[in-house]
Amino acid sequence: MKILYFEDDVFKHADVVKAVNAAGPQEVVWVKNMEDGFGKLQEAQQEGKPFQLIITDMCFPLFEGGPESIRAGQEVMDGLEKRGLDIPVIICSSLNIRSARAYGSVWHSDISDWDLELAEMIRKLQRNAV
Q: N or C: which end of the chain has fewer CB within 10 A?
């Protein structure tokens, strides 16, 4: 599965990639800001190799070198909708946030089994894609 992952924290990125790959080997493209992410989305669409899943944090910069935005995850979902892209989104954030627009949400916390939840969501998506 080809996954675009929006996250600006290198340590959380490593944790999430490990959890994602627990569901089987995945192609994870990591971006640290929204602008780069939408560039990768457009590039993948043009190459005919679109992303099948987006995992997003909720707080990260909107552009390289910019300040962290508390609305970044919502902006990602808004941008997908505006562009007519129907790609499932999983929120993986240290903020315990749910959104009806997301396929699922995972609370990235030391007191939750977020990694098992994330891997199971990905397995479910893979089963439904077959």
A: C
The tokens for 45 are: 């669409």
| Alpha-carbon gap, residue 107 to 45, rounded angstroms | 30
The pair of three-digit structure tokens given for residue 66, joined into one six-digit string: 């910019």
Which of the 8 DSSP states describes residue 84? T
Rounded Cα gap, residues 115 and 105, in angstroms: 12
Domains of the chain plus CATH, in order, are: 2-129 (3.40.50.2300)
Whether the pTM exceeds 0.85: the reply is: yes
SS3 label, residue 10: helix
Average pLDDT, the chain: 95
First to last CA, the chain: 11
Alpha-carbon span 51 to 48, nearest angstrom: 10
Beta-bridge partners for 19: none
What gap in Å lies between CA 32 and CA 88, rounded to an integer? 19
Distance CA 96, CA 98 (A): 7
